[in-house]
């Protein structure tokens, strides 16, 4: 059938992570692939009770159409939480509720990106952000990173020499895919450079609450004096991802532009779920729940790092995240993580090859490991199997 698709559809391809999830849904697969929270930590009983209560006491409003901006009590809570933890000064009018923070990224494309515009991003960066922005015809220019995140000295040079830069996309806290955190000095410098060059910053922060050690750092947005920083948050990692509730936060004028484009997409996010989350936050101690999550994830991270150190061959480097869900592995340049993945899948172990996280390609000797979703014993077993495959690869290359 000869179908006339829009040109943008030719730029899209299936997410390698989503395709891998079809394999990792098999219960006997040890998966380091998806960024999945631990399902045993979902507060299912509390949420069940709150669903009944919301329907009983506010069912007619919770099941009705509502404003695009979102459920007012939830927006007020988000603004207060951001002000307390990230150093912002927001009210509910600075917040738009979205269908996960991923929708916020897609809406950013609608609001900001014209064909041929440039997005500056960390190298590597979040795969689904690449997909969202690329649909609007942008080009990516990758900014080098190190253990302190995006290198702002390189960013400054690129801003001086690159035309049509529309936005800078960053994940400052426990970055996906590397697990690295941007230093305080670089956060300040990023805000300064954005103001100097009149460029928007898209600050993605889905993992910021998941800090196991070290000090919480203020957001890039907290250093913004001109309203140039837009941030994205989510309940997926601190409550449950199936609700698909996130938010966009920024200056009122910019948030209203997001409201306009969201009205053309879905009119509004799920009213009932927003009401359930707001009631949960009112009746339960979210900090106690997050503390429980952190205890489990820290143990799993520690097991992962210990296993990597004991089992992986010499010449392999890996990050040591202070929080979040991911560690990043860099293999010797002669190794191809896609070939290694194929061999691991035959042994019922999965991870994500690193190449797709580089929007302009390359770096196929890297891979991402998620540590939140597997129990400690399975993490140990899975890393041992990957190490066996790596050692076989090394031996065959001799």
Secondary structure layout:
Blueprint: H1 16-24, E1 30-31, H2 44-62, H3 72-86, E2 95-98, H4 100-112, E3 118-123, H5 127-134, E4 139-146, E5 149-150, H6 152-161, E6 165-170, H7 184-197, E7 200-204, E8 229-234, E9 246-249, H8 252-263, H9 271-283, H10 286-311, E10 317-318, E11 326-330, H11 337-346, E12 349-350, E13 352-353, E14 366-370, H12 376-397
Helix pairs in contact: 2-9, 4-5, 4-8, 6-7, 10-12
How would you describe this structure to a colleague?
By secondary structure, the protein is an alpha/beta fold. It is 43% helix and 15% strand. The chain has 12 helices and 14 strands. The chain has helices at 16-24, 44-62, 72-86, 100-112, 127-134, 152-161, 184-197, 252-263, 271-283, 286-311, 337-346, 376-397; strands at 30-31, 95-98, 118-123, 139-146, 149-150, 165-170, 200-204, 229-234, 246-249, 317-318, 326-330, 349-350, 352-353, 366-370. The strands form 3 sheets. The chain has an 8-stranded mixed beta sheet with strand order 2-9-8-7-6-3-4-5, with helices on both faces. Helix 5 (127-134) links the parallel strand 3 and strand 4. Helix 2 packs across helix 9 (271-283), helix 4 runs parallel beside helix 5 (127-134) and helix 6 (152-161) runs parallel beside helix 7. It is globular and about 65 Å long.
């Amino acid at each position: 059938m000869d179908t006339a698709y829009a040109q943008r559809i030719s730029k899209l391809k299936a997410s390698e992570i989503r395709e891998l999830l079809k394999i990792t849904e098999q219960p006997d697969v040890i998966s380091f692939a998806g960024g999945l929270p631990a399902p045993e930590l979902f507060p299912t009983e509390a949420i069940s009770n709150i669903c009944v209560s919301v329907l009983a006491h506010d069912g007619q409003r919770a099941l009705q159409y509502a404003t695009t901006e979102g459920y007012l009590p939830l927006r007020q809570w988000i603004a207060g939480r951001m002000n307390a933890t990230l150093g912002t000064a927001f009210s509910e009018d600075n917040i738009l509720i979205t269908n996960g923070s991923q929708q916020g990224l897609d809406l950013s494309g609608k609001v900001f990106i014209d064909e041929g515009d440039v997005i500056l991003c960390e190298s590597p960066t979040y795969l689904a952000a690449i997909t969202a922005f690329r649909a609007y015809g942008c080009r990516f220019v990758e900014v080098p990173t190190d253990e302190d995140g995006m290198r702002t000295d390189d960013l400054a040079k690129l801003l001086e020499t690159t035309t049509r830069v529309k936005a800078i996309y960053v994940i400052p806290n426990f970055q996906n895919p590397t697990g690295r955190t941007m230093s305080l000095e670089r956060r300040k410098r990023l805000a300064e450079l954005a103001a100097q060059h009149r460029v928007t910053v898209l600050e993605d922060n889905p993992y910021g609450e998941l800090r196991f050690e070290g000090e919480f750092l203020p957001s890039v947005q907290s250093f913004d004096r001109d309203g140039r920083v837009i941030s994205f948050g989510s309940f997926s990692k601190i409550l449950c991802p199936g609700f698909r509730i996130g938010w966009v936060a920024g200056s009122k004028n910019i948030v209203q532009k997001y409201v306009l484009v969201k009205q053309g997409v879905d009119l509004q996010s799920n009213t009932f779920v927003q009401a359930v989350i707001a009631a949960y936050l009112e009746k339960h101690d979210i900090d106690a729940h997050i503390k429980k999550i952190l205890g489990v994830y820290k143990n799993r991270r520690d097991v992962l790092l210990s296993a990597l150190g004991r089992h992986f061959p010499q010449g392999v480097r890996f990050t040591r995240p202070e929080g979040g869900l991911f560690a990043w592995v860099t293999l010797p340049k002669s190794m191809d993580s896609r070939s290694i993945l194929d061999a691991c899948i035959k042994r019922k172990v999965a991870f994500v090859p690193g190449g797709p996280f580089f929007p302009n390609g390359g770096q196929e000797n890297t891979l991402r490991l998620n540590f939140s979703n597997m129990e400690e014993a399975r993490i140990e077993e899975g890393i041992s199997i990957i190490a066996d495959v790596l050692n076989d690869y090394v031996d065959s290359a001799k």
